[in-house]
């Protein structure tokens, strides 16, 4: 196992908001991320479990 590979961290920034909404100013993008941050976190964790389960199953199938 690779050292330091014990966790996965996903980070979103105001620049990601700007990618989806290029018409927003930097300040508006920062405010938008601040406004949606809690729900974005919660949904990302929820969907992350589903993705992790699927990837584990795919890996197990490949290793049979």
Sum this structure up briefly.
The chain is mainly alpha-helical and 64 residues long. The chain has helices at 14-20, 26-62.
Structure commentary:
The chain has 64 residues and is an all-alpha fold. The protein has one domain. The protein is built from two helices and no strands. It has helices at 14-20, 26-62. α1 (14-20) packs across α2. It is elongated and about 50 Å long. The two termini are 20 Å apart. The model has no long low-confidence stretch (mean pLDDT 93).
What secondary-structure arrangement, pairings included, does this model have?
Elements: H1 14-20, H2 26-62
Instruction: Tell me the distance between the termini.
Output: 20 Å
Please give the largest β-sheet. none
The helix/strand order is HH
Shape: elongated
> Could you tell me the strand content as a percent range?
under 5%
Q: Tally the helices.
A: 2
Q: Outline the low-pLDDT stretches.
A: none
List the domain count as a whole number: 1
Name the average pLDDT.
Answer: 93
- Roughly how many Å is the radius of gyration? 16 Å
Give descriptors for this structure.
elongated; single chain; 64 residues; 0% strand; mainly alpha; 2 helices
């Amino acid at each position: 196992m690779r050292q330091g590979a014990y966790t996965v961290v996903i980070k979103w920034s105001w620049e990601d908001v700007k990618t989806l909404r290029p018409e927003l100013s930097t300040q508006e993008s920062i405010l938008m991320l601040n406004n949606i941050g809690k729900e974005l976190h919660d949904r990302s964790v929820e969907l992350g479990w589903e993705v992790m389960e699927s990837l584990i199953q795919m890996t197990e199938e490949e290793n049979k």
